[in-house]
Amino acid sequence: MIQSMTGYGCSEEVCADVAYRAEVRSVNHRYCDINVRLPESLTRLEQKIRSHISKKFSRGKFDVYLTQMGMSFKNGGQVLNVEAITRYRTMLKDLSEHFNVNFNIREEIGISDMLALKEMLVFRVEEAGKPEIDTAILKMVYKSIDNLMEMRLKEGDLIYKDLIKRIIRLNTLIRRIEKRVPVVIRDMKIRYSERVKEISGAQQLDMNRLALEIAVMVERMDITEEIVRVGSHITQLREKLDNGAVVGRGIDFLLQEVNREVNTIASKASDVKIAQIVVDMKTEIERVREQIQNIE
Fold first, then answer.
1. Where in the chain is the domain with CATH 3.30.230.10?
2. CB-based contact 123:71 (threshold 8 Å)
3. pLDDT band at 169 (very low <50, low <70, confident <90, very high)
4. In sequence order, what E strands does the chain have?
5. How far, in Å, CA of 190 to CA of 217, rounded?
6. 3-state SS assignment for residue 218
7. Under a CB-based contact definition with an 8 Å cutoff, are residues 125 and 74 in contact?
8. Over 70: is that where the pLDDT of 41 sits?
9. What band does 128 get if pLDDT is binned at 50, 70 and 90?
10. In CATH, what class is 7-73+128-153?
């Protein structure tokens, strides 16, 4: 199955009395770009997370967030950051002396004081059992990544169905052009013969020469090869979609080829009805191109 490059996955877990939440988001990107944000105490896991994503996905911009949601005091918990408190207090005293301003520094420190300033309270986890904690957290992050993939596959299926519908439409349009070709050639022969007769007037026409000239004109306007190539490209488009996996870049190349052949058909045919069909084909090509920007 094909995958969309847009998705989201999350999961929550309690590890060593600490509640964690893992979120993974992905959006369109030409390559595989991974950004991992972890608590400082868990940065050692970043490379494993990056490696896991790289193995599962080929394209997309991935943002991974791991957040500590809460902690009990059983296995560490929140503790006062004495160094930070001392720094803040010293800084306020220095400012007071420098500007001769009373900042009303109290000797007592309450809960509101500790919560008002950043770094007053810090999380501290005991280092014991680190391998078990790492395993549990990685399992949670990997679950979020699996949820992300599930969403990408669901959206990819919707895109696949839309692309198939448009490819069928392209095939229908090129067959309409194919059926139109004999009519265009017949009308061209009639117009050319009548025009030659008008110009020649009463002069005797060399019918063999006229037939040769018409044959040359028909050959110049022949779009059979272009029609065959477009049909072949459309078949390849369908095969790539049905095969799944990473298809975005391959489809984009085939669309460029289809568009080039369609432009050639429009310039060679010189027929109003074929020109109208070509406009419809180019519209479908553009819609397919927009959709494949969203798939891996």
1. 7-73+128-153
2. yes
3. very high
4. 7-15, 18-27, 32-37, 60-71, 78-80, 121-123
5. 12
6. helix
7. no
8. yes
9. very low
10. alpha beta
